[in-house]
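Meet our chain:
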Amino acid sequence: NVRDLGVQVASDLSWSRHIASMVTKARSTLSWVFSVFKTRDSTVMTTMYKSIVRSTLEYCCPLWNPSKITDIQLIEGVQRTFTSRIGGLRHLNYWERLAKLKLMSLQRRRERYIILMMWKIFHNVVPNCCNIKFSLTSRHGAVAVIPPLSRLSSLANQTLYDRSFAVLGPKLWNQVPSTIKAFDKFDTFKTSLSKYIALIPDKPPVVGY
């Protein structure tokens, strides 16, 4: 494994070990929160969760966004545990608890972060390290070009290709309506994107469902 700026990457470019370590740290912090604070008030506990638990689970997430179902479930399980401990919500299932607390699933939030990063790349706010190219069209606005993959590539390379930011970023960006992509102010784009995403069913795979 190689560790750089707090992110671990394995020799096979897998993120599973980083995700497992990150989830362990987040669960430890969550246990501390529940042991120190007696209240189970949704406002207080959600503020604590967002500040010191969820932030751990989202550090550099556009880079290591998982494709393995087991990794997705492992991360989502932290938020599932948190919501199950909030007063008055224990009789609800996970998706109903998210709706009550006005939270997105962690998978949906990672997708949102990737799209926000694509906006920053398009507007030259951050370096375009993946050399992502855009084309302007009258119908769809700014369209990100998905890099081609050789048909002769091995199955392992195809998997790496599919889960890379250079491929997933353009795919998600191209799903955003042109009216939203046209906003040149980040805060306006971010707000409009969040409202649009809220209209899309949000049910990633979670153990037990």
User: Anything to note?
Assistant: The mean pLDDT is 92. The first strand starts at residue 2 and ends at 4. Residues 1 and 10 are 4 Å apart (CA to CA).
